[in-house]
Amino acid sequence: MIPQTILETRGIGKTFGSVLALRDVSMGVAAGQVMCVLGDNGAGKSTLIKILSGVHRHDAGAYLVDGQEVSFGSPREALDRGIATVYQDLAMIPLMSVWRNFFLGSEPRKGPAFDVAKARRVAREELRAMGIDIRDVDQPVGTLSGGERQSVAIARAVHFGARVLILDEPTSALGVKQAGVVLRYIARARDRGLGVVFITHNPHHAYPVGDRFLLLNRGASMGEYGKDDITAQELTALMAGGAELEELAHELRRE
Amino acid sequence: MIPQTILETRGIGKTFGSVLALRDVSMGVAAGQVMCVLGDNGAGKSTLIKILSGVHRHDAGAYLVDGQEVSFGSPREALDRGIATVYQDLAMIPLMSVWRNFFLGSEPRKGPAFDVAKARRVAREELRAMGIDIRDVDQPVGTLSGGERQSVAIARAVHFGARVLILDEPTSALGVKQAGVVLRYIARARDRGLGVVFITHNPHHAYPVGDRFLLLNRGASMGEYGKDDITAQELTALMAGGAELEELAHELRRE
Amino acid sequence: GGQQSAAPPASSAAPQASGAGFSVITHGAPGDSFWDVVKNGAEAAGKQYGVKVTYQGDGDPAKQSQLIDQAVSEKVDGIVVSMANPDALKEAIGKAVAAKIPVVTINSGAESSKEFGAITHVGQSEDVAGRGAGEQLKAAGVTKLLCVIHEAGNVGLDQRCKGAEQTLGGTVERLQVDVSNLADVTSKVTAKLQSDQQVNGVLSLNPAIAIAARDAIKDAGSQAKLATFDLSADVVTAINDGEILFAVDQQQYLQGYLPITFLRLYNTNLNTVGGGLAVNTGPGFVTKDNAAQVAKLAEAGTR
Amino acid sequence: MTVPAQAAADERVAHVGLARRLLIRPELGAVVGLVAVFVFFAAQSPVFRSPDGIANWLDPAATLGIMAVAVALLMIGGEFDLSAGVLTGTSGLILVTLATRFGFNVWLAMLVGLVVALAIGFANGLVVTRTRLPSFIVTLGTFLMLQGINLGVTKAITGTVQVSGLRRADGFESANAIFAGTIEIGGTSFRVAILWWILVTAVATWVLMRSRAGNWIFAVGGNEHAARAVGVPAARTKIALFMTTAVAAWLVGSILALRYTSVQANIGIGQEFIYIIAAVIGGCLLTGGYGSAIGAAIGAVIFGMADKGIVFLGWDADWFKFFLGGMLLLATLANRLVRRYAEEVRH
Amino acid sequence: MTVPAQAAADERVAHVGLARRLLIRPELGAVVGLVAVFVFFAAQSPVFRSPDGIANWLDPAATLGIMAVAVALLMIGGEFDLSAGVLTGTSGLILVTLATRFGFNVWLAMLVGLVVALAIGFANGLVVTRTRLPSFIVTLGTFLMLQGINLGVTKAITGTVQVSGLRRADGFESANAIFAGTIEIGGTSFRVAILWWILVTAVATWVLMRSRAGNWIFAVGGNEHAARAVGVPAARTKIALFMTTAVAAWLVGSILALRYTSVQANIGIGQEFIYIIAAVIGGCLLTGGYGSAIGAAIGAVIFGMADKGIVFLGWDADWFKFFLGGMLLLATLANRLVRRYAEEVRH
Ligand SMILES: Nc1ncnc2c1ncn2[C@@H]1O[C@H](COP(=O)(O)OP(=O)(O)OP(=O)(O)O)[C@@H](O)[C@H]1O
Ligand SMILES: Nc1ncnc2c1ncn2[C@@H]1O[C@H](COP(=O)(O)OP(=O)(O)OP(=O)(O)O)[C@@H](O)[C@H]1O
Ligand SMILES: [Mg+2]
Ligand SMILES: [Mg+2]
């Protein structure tokens, strides 16, 4: 089976004023594949994701969707090509209720109107399926806990994810149980034939679901590995001293 | 050695409108001790932390500092009692530069003026010590990556931490290396005799540094354990199915 | 100097005109219907004599004096200025006089005109006009008058009301309205008439306000008599229909036209008019008797 | 570890009275201000509470209300329109000038006015979304320019600062009846503008609460970047809001022109802030993302009542603004205190 | 894996020209607008660029500038003050009334005015911080109330709407020389107000950039909750900003009263928006947290030049507002385009 590549970047780069955030990064994600992007803080992962999803425009290299070169002017254009994203920081409208946020930009209709009853019901169900039992879907998102907010964003992207699902540190604010649910979602999306781009700092989260691993450092690519090329140990080691954690446990005990 | 209790809550509770966020929680942290607060998303961890640091006022129970009942009207009052906090969401002023954010509220003086040169230097040094090499401390915080922003907040709290350090999911956005640095900081603070309240979802982060563990669920306390009462495995299990992760690894493989 | 052959020969003693023209600087807000007629008069005179006339107006005395300062630095041939607040303009006018620029004062400020060094004063102070209105209203049997002020704190409007108060003999109540919102004007005047049945006369200080007040009197079912300052085509029609008793007409066209004429004569022939006394332009009254004649003129913006 | 009947009753939800739950809504906070101001004046002035008196103060509240509702939508969407007040004048001037000087039928003249208003609204929106300049400064530019055009063109065409004589134009009667007529209710004649106002408020409320566009409006005002990131057409939404405000200005300008049959060149200047004030009294946030159409309509009534009520009480005109300021402050304060009691904390 | 000489040159920093780095500063963007407007008028009017002409348009720019700088600080701190304009009138009225009707020495009368202004600023700040109402609505209340007081008290004391005769009061000469005098430079007399303006701008810049208070101002405007969470005394900072604005209003009111020796009861109404406009032209964000004092001072000059330049060109007064609006729009647009070119993206 030769998986069909949906997204591809070739030597892509991005500069903010004098800041070189991303340099010469090439990657691709195919249908039914999970691409994990790993790297230190400030390595450029979110910048890459924002280019893929149309928030930023790249200023070097080429970005291809279905083999066709594109340059998205807005996230709407990316969404219309079936690319759904959970952002690390551009998440929610704090003053709006959970259900309004959930369906923002893709409101279900009933005649000319917004089908409010359906929106509430679906939002509640999708969140409960993630193990988040929201008291009241009318609660403004700004009053949710950090993890609850993140869950709303993920549930939304999963619900609307059409061909590619991009997740920027989706599990960072989540409890162990919720993180497990999200990993299962990723696996399920992959099995349904979606391409997934998954960013995380946690090698325990990345290795089980990932098919390919892109490593970024200081804005540049340090190589892309298939799952067969690399073991969990090697990956953890590559993530800048992941193995240290075990030593730490000893070091941190009271002397 | 009987450690001296600095902070203590007795049956504390908090309601937002109709939302019961916290009910009847008792805990304490002593000098030279790390208290880990664990729990699902929305369990009330951040609410507890905000009461401790003076952002919210509790509306039930008692809050004691040095054995004396208090009710802080503002974070300033808590700071003046030596309680420094890294919040999960009230972090930074996006339009202000890194060094201005770093020293906000505790500006170094030189005569009547803000000692700008010193502020820049210290901010840069403290961040580099955390493994974050900021290009330019004049960069607005809003343009930093998620992890870089978090690091600034932690570096600030550590730099100014006087008697108690409260950290709300400090490691969630951090890379493995940076997370290791933060854990070392926590251990170092503990060894210097500070009390630390540490919230995290990651049992691998919590167990090595924690002395006591408070478990919250749906706003209520599920008990407080000493390190000797509980093993790492038990703790992970208590954190709602942490052990599942191993099974997941198999489950998530392509069928 | 010496622009037109039709003009009297320029005397060698006459100040030299620089060609920068004349500057008219009033305390009227732009778009104010009274001052617009002054502007029309000044511009007509300018056209007549083939000289440049620029008009500026600002109700803030500080701004007005800055405009005078500007005219002085431009070295204009003459300045026409209205003095609602003589104290505030003293310094600026003094500078103009010191720079040998002839000044004619118009409208209010007759008392200070000579002292400040103006060559003459043309106009009609607002309180004299107000007194005239008060007399007429008294004759019409008005005992309690509502004076509608459409710009709070405006000196000219205040003087008109005060003048009316002096001659009416009865009580005068003031009402503040917002000129840029006529629905508000109608409603406020109605409110006043509904809540105080004693009021049997309304004096408006602006033609648009007059029309709004006319509707208000109808809405409130009141018998109050209505009079106004200044003209518009609608006001003339209403006078004809008997809805408005009279309009005070200061013939302010003259307050624009004459000063330009006088300055022109002064610059070319050193003539001064009035012999140290003010030249009066009013008050005249437009009533049912003469409304028909002025109707066309009001529509053309010269009355 | 989990409570069995979760859906039925969540142990994390405290019991809260109906009153408190209602008061949390932005519009219901404003109702408290409304009642307070009404009671204050009605208690002291019998005319104020008489049908005639009510018809009187409802009339300016209606035209203000139409604008306040449109401006509230725009403010919820995170923008201001300072040109809205002058645009009422522009629309009225176009109508009267075309009908009286160029022999247009009144309906046709209104149509032209509508097209011009829409074009101006579109231009405002386009400049704001394209240049990303604050709308405060862009529409301030439009405000000044329209002010100049209103005066300059009127002067150039008529030689005076006003155009009049609409009564004699073709189609005046029918247009006047629909936009500026009165309706008798129990012997008191109310202005039809009140009906227009109710209609505008109802439509705006439906759009805000029950349409996709409403969701987008809240979103672009609450956090434009986030909204754009999930695919909300932010620029289109904002342009539509500016055009809506322009249509409201055209409606109000036409109503007033048809009613007074003449328009002065300086009409509407300064009104733009009254619209914003009414919207804020009604609970709209200046920072965008929060508010309601009904609240703005109520804000207009509060302002209208305070504005007229002082006249009904016969207080000294010199002190008028003093009382007005005090009244507005107290009304918003009442609104605020009630909402604070109801919701406690909201960041 | 890390580059050895990190401090020396970071490979993640692209080379960017000096010009581009300078243009990113809020004040330097405004300079572009300034130059554009100056060149436009200077090219067409020799008087405009003559020393006399410059003294002319610098004079109103100076009083506007003093207010714009104070208002800019307040806006950076996230608040508005709509009462600032009327407060200049109140201060002037207090000064002239006390000196002419109650025989106060001019200096003493000014001191009383200062105390009253400080009290009003304090009250504004206190109400805003305590009630958490938007300052727009609170200071609108103050604005209306002061307007009523100005008129009511002046009428009650003098029977007219203006007080005059300050020239004859004790201490007038000395006060006038310091606040309203002129200084000769190369044969042209410039107003001392210009010096006051430079002083105010310098002090404000120092406070913003080099003091703890400046850090707090940016912080409370950028994100008040976050600022409070790290211990910034937000309420105190805001109250101090309102008081600063009040002091500036007092200074400007006194300068104008001493210069014109009389004050009208409606002075300053509507000016509050000009102050905000100048600050926004100078690069302040309406949403707070960003801006500069120098920018606001430059914004005042841009406004002053456009305002007076149109008169110098002798364009028809009817169209004045049209040109003014167009000019302001172009100046801010130039500023914006330059800054966009310089910084590309900023959320
Ligand atoms: N708008 C911007 N303007 C200037 N610099 C920016 C901007 N956005 C990002 N950067 C810089 O680009 C670099 C890469 O940022 P990015 O957010 O992509 O990192 P990241 O890999 O997602 O890090 P993290 O794991 O901490 O989220 C950072 O150093 C950041 O400071
Ligand atoms: N201001 C508020 N208004 C209403 N409800 C609130 C508010 N703040 C928090 N809550 C609710 O209280 C509950 C506890 O929130 P809290 O932020 O303390 O959770 P948490 O344990 O920190 O969760 P997480 O791990 O996801 O950060 C949540 O269900 C949240 O919806
Ligand atoms: Mg990131
Ligand atoms: Mg939390």
UniProtKB/TrEMBL annotation, chains A, B:
Source organism superkingdom: Bacteria
Keyword Transcription among record annotations: no
Pfam families: ABC_tran (PF00005)
Gene3D superfamilies: P-loop containing nucleotide triphosphate hydrolases (3.40.50.300)
Identification of the protein by name: ATP-binding cassette domain-containing protein
Domain ABC transporter per the UniProt entry, residue ranges: 7-243
Keyword line: ATP-binding, Nucleotide-binding
PANTHER family: CARBOHYDRATE TRANSPORT ATP-BINDING PROTEIN MG119-RELATED, SUGAR ABC TRANSPORTER ATP-BINDING PROTEIN
Molecular functions per Gene Ontology: ATP binding
PROSITE patterns per UniProt: ABC_TRANSPORTER_2
TrEMBL record, chains D, E:
Topology in membrane: Multi-pass membrane protein
Pfam families: BPD_transp_2
Keywords: Cell inner membrane, Cell membrane, Membrane, Sugar transport, Transmembrane, Transmembrane helix, Transport
Chief subcellular location: membrane
Keyword Lipid biosynthesis: no
Domain of life: Bacteria
Segments crossing the lipid bilayer: 28-48, 54-75, 82-100, 106-127, 192-209, 239-261, 273-306, 318-338
UniProt entry tagged with the keyword Cell membrane: yes
Subcellular location: Cell membrane
Function (record text): Part of the binding-protein-dependent transport system for D-xylose. Probably responsible for the translocation of the substrate across the membrane.
Protein name: Xylose transport system permease protein XylH
Organism this protein belongs to: Nonomuraea monospora
Highest classification ranks of the organism: Bacteria, Bacillati, Actinomycetota, Actinomycetes, Streptosporangiales
